[in-house]
Specification:
This protein has 330 residues and is an all-alpha fold. Helices cover 66% and strands 0% of the residues.
Length: 330
C-alpha cells in the first residue's frame, strides 16, 4: 500500500545529487577541508599530528632601513689607544718569556740539560754547577766503579770534617797545637772542592766520553791524592792531620781526645786503601778501552786549538806581532 500512496508525479529521489548517500556522508563528516589539510603529518608511531599553521593575515609592511651611525673621532682614538696598549702588554709578556728561557739556557751546562749538582733548593741563591746522571751518561759496565769513586770523594769530605773536630778537641786540651787546628780548616776548604774538580770529574768524563786525555789526567792527579791519603793516615805532627802519630801523642795527654783522633786515623787509612783499589780498577778498565798516550795527545791538541780563548789570544798575539813588524819597517 505504501507504493500506492507515493506521488507518481513527484521527481525521483535519485535525480537529486545532494540526496545521494555518499555526498551527504562527505558533507556531514569531520574531514578536513583543503585549507586545513597538512601534507606533513606527524609520524604514525608517535600518535601526534602537527596542525598546519594558519596563513598570516598581517598586511605587508615595507622594510625600514636604520640610519648608520659613524663612530666619533674620540671613540676611534680611544679604540686605537686600547689596541696599542694590548699589543704593548703582549710584547712585554713575550719579552719576559724570552728572558726566562735565556736564563734557563744559561743555567744549563754544555749538554743542554739543567744542572742538578750540587742538589740545592731552588730558593737558594747559588745554583747547581754540574749535570750528573750515572744511569744516563755512564755506560752500564762503568757505572759501579764510577759510583764507588763518587762515594770515596764523599767519604773523604766527611773524614776531613771529622779531622777538623778532632784537631779542635786536641787544641782545647793543649793550646800549643793550634797549628794543627788551623791547617785542618785549610785542608777541609781546599781538598773538598779540588778533589771533586781534579780527580772525580775527570774520571766521570773519561767514563762518559771514553776520553784518553781525561784518563791520563785522572791517573796523574789521583796518584797524588793517594800519596796525600797516606800522609794524612800517618799523621805527621803540626801538619793538621789526625793520623796515627798525632793520635798516639794525644792519647798520652787526654784519653778521650786520643780515641777520637785514632778513629779519624782509621778513616784516613780506609781512604788510602780504597783509593789504591779503585786506582787499579780504573787502570784495568782503561786498558780495555783501547786508549793510548798518542790518542790523549791528539785530544789535547784538538781541545786547545778549538778553544775560543786560545784562538782569541793567538789572534791578538799575531796582530800585535804584525803591527810591530809594520812599525819597525817604517
Amino acid at each position: 500500500m505504501s507504493e500506492l500512496d507515493s506521488n507518481p508525479f513527484a521527481a525521483p529521489a535519485s535525480d537529486n545529487p545532494f540526496h545521494d548517500p555518499s555526498v551527504t556522508q562527505v558533507t556531514n563528516s569531520s574531514v578536513e577541508t583543503v585549507d586545513q589539510y597538512n601534507p606533513f603529518p606527524g609520524h604514525p608511531t608517535d600518535g601526534l599530528t602537527t596542525p598546519s599553521a594558519p596563513a598570516s593575515t598581517a598586511p605587508y609592511q615595507p622594510a625600514v632601513l636604520q640610519p648608520s651611525t659613524e663612530p666619533s673621532p674620540q671613540a676611534t682614538a680611544a679604540a686605537a689607544q686600547a689596541n696599542l696598549l694590548r699589543q704593548q702588554e703582549e710584547l712585554e709578556r713575550k719579552a719576559a718569556e724570552l728572558d726566562r728561557r735565556e736564563q734557563e739556557m744559561q743555567s744549563r751546562g754544555p749538554t743542554g740539560k739543567e744542572n742538578n749538582w750540587p742538589p740545592l733548593p731552588r730558593s737558594f741563591p747559588i745554583k747547581p754547577c754540574f749535570y750528573q746522571d750515572f744511569s744516563e751518561e755512564i755506560p752500564p759496565e762503568y757505572q759501579r766503579v764510577c759510583k764507588m769513586i763518587y762515594y770515596l770523594w764523599m767519604f773523604n769530605c766527611v773524614t776531613l770534617f771529622l779531622n777538623l773536630l778532632a784537631c779542635l778537641a786536641f787544641f782545647t786540651t793543649n793550646t800549643s797545637y793550634g797549628v794543627d787546628f788551623g791547617l785542618s780548616i785549610l785542608w777541609l776548604i781546599l781538598f773538598t772542592p779540588c778533589s771533586f774538580l781534579c780527580w772525580y770529574r775527570p774520571v766521570y768524563k773519561a767514563f762518559k766520553t771514553d776520553s784518553s786525555f781525561s784518563f791520563f789526567f785522572f791517573f796523574f792527579v789521583f796518584f797524588c791524592q793517594v800519596v796525600i791519603f797516606i800522609i794524612q793516615s800517618v799523621g805527621i805532627p803540626n801538619w793538621g792531620n789526625s793520623g796515627w802519630i798525632t793520635a798516639f801523642t794525644a792519647i798520652s795527654v787526654n784519653t778521650a781526645v786520643g780515641a777520637i783522633m785514632i778513629a779519624v786515623a782509621i778513616l784516613f787509612t780506609m781512604c788510602a786503601v780504597l783509593s789504591v783499589i779503585l786506582l787499579k780498577m780504573v787502570h784495568s778498565m782503561y786498558r780495555r778501552t783501547g786508549a793510548s798516550f798518542q790518542k790523549a795527545q791528539q785530544e789535547f791538541s784538538q781541545g786547545v786549538f778549538t778553544n775560543k780563548t786560545f784562538q782569541r789570544a793567538t789572534a791578538s798575539a799575531a796582530s800585535s806581532a804584525a803591527q810591530g813588524a809594520f812599525q819597525g819597517s817604517n
